[in-house]
Amino acid sequence: MPEWPIKDVARATGLTSRTLRHYEQIGLLHPSRVAHNGYRFYGETELSRLYRILSLRALELPLATIQNALEDDETLAEAITTHLALLEERRDRTIQQITAVRHTLDAVTKGKSMTIKDIFDGFDQSQHEAEVRERWGDDAWERSAKRREQMSEDQLQADGQRSVDINTALREAAAAGVDPSGARFQSLIAAHHRWVTEYWAGRVPDRTAYTGLSELYVADARFAATYGGQQNAEAIREAMQFWIEANLD
């Protein structure tokens, strides 16, 4: 039966070899064999399982939940059929999100009054899973996802409102031209750092991680739009970098 080396599987899936080895360590995906030199190889059975893993991961499910869902055997054709159904479900959700974003854009361009909740309705935080995994590793995302999974509906609502409140305060400070190095903006950044720590389930963002986050706010147009445009995002990044210099080694 055909087999593919780990580097080819990594290249084809967009995963890293480190991630595939992590999946092996936690028992989620084992290679079909390991050569005497330590090279991992994957056959069709393993690729079928990996396909299902990626399909479920695309739904932002924690790895522990995915592992439980993979207990039953399934062919590659069945995995693809299931994935197609999930994609169609996501398509419908995306259409709803596009409608919300268009409504927001129409209101903003025409000068209509909107609440802050209206503005953020079209912003899907889950879309940033790839950035979190790539920049800070799978553990950062898994801890965050597990944290939210364990919350009640009331806790989730309160958590979401806190996210809105934190980001709204940053947006308003930037839009008002508040000095990024001043006490007011720096106090907001301190609150933001605490919020990120909670969101990452207790993993305190160090200098490298928090700097990377500040750069992401400017580099990713979705974040810039959330903060009211590129200029505001740059002001928030500047404030974060002042705070980093003063508070993180």
UniProtKB/TrEMBL annotation:
Classification via Gene3D superfamilies: 1.10.1660.10, Antibiotic binding domain of TipA-like multidrug resistance regulators
Keywords attached to this entry: DNA-binding, Repressor, Transcription, Transcription regulation
Pfam family, one: TipAS
HTH merR-type domain sequence ranges: 3-72
Transmembrane annotation, as ranges: none
Protein's name in the database: MerR family transcriptional regulator
Organism: Glutamicibacter bergerei
